[in-house]
Amino acid sequence: MSKITDLIQASIDVKQQVLADENLLRVIQQSVDLITDAFKKGNRVYFCGNGGSAADAQHLAAEFSGRFYTDRKALPAEALHCNTSYLTAVGNDYSFDLIYARLIDGIGQAGDVLLGLSTSGNSTNIVRAFEKAKEKGMHTIGFTGLTGGQLKAVSDLLINIPSADTPRIQESHILAGHIICQLVEENIFG
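That's the Phosphoheptose isomerase sequence above. Prediction below.
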């Protein structure tokens, strides 16, 4: 039982650090404002990640395109990894490092928002997607761990959770993502 309580406490400790970090809270609010503005202007929001972060990206995209709290119109958001035929073709024919950048090159528009989840901040396929998004005039929001890794340099906004422990970072990514989804929904639909 002590191991279980220790793990729960570790999660709480990271969330308390998030709660106490005024700069990080400000970045979460800026993310809300950026995404709200993009949706109001008719732009789209895209998500990407790898492994558990891909699952989190898909989860958060569904909160916008499905619903969060309110029975309302769908918002144009999607996770970029859901087409396995595309992923395996591009991964095989080009490189796994290009799976997201190539898709952003094909469908991204100026004013759209790309959110990338990478606990290290060093996932090459997400870094390259952010670089391509910047070329296209898109906005980028990185969800990372403590240092921000390489995503720090290519993110307009960086939600860098104050931890180096992957599960604790991912738990806080979902917390920040849910906050963003709720507040964007309230901003748009009341």
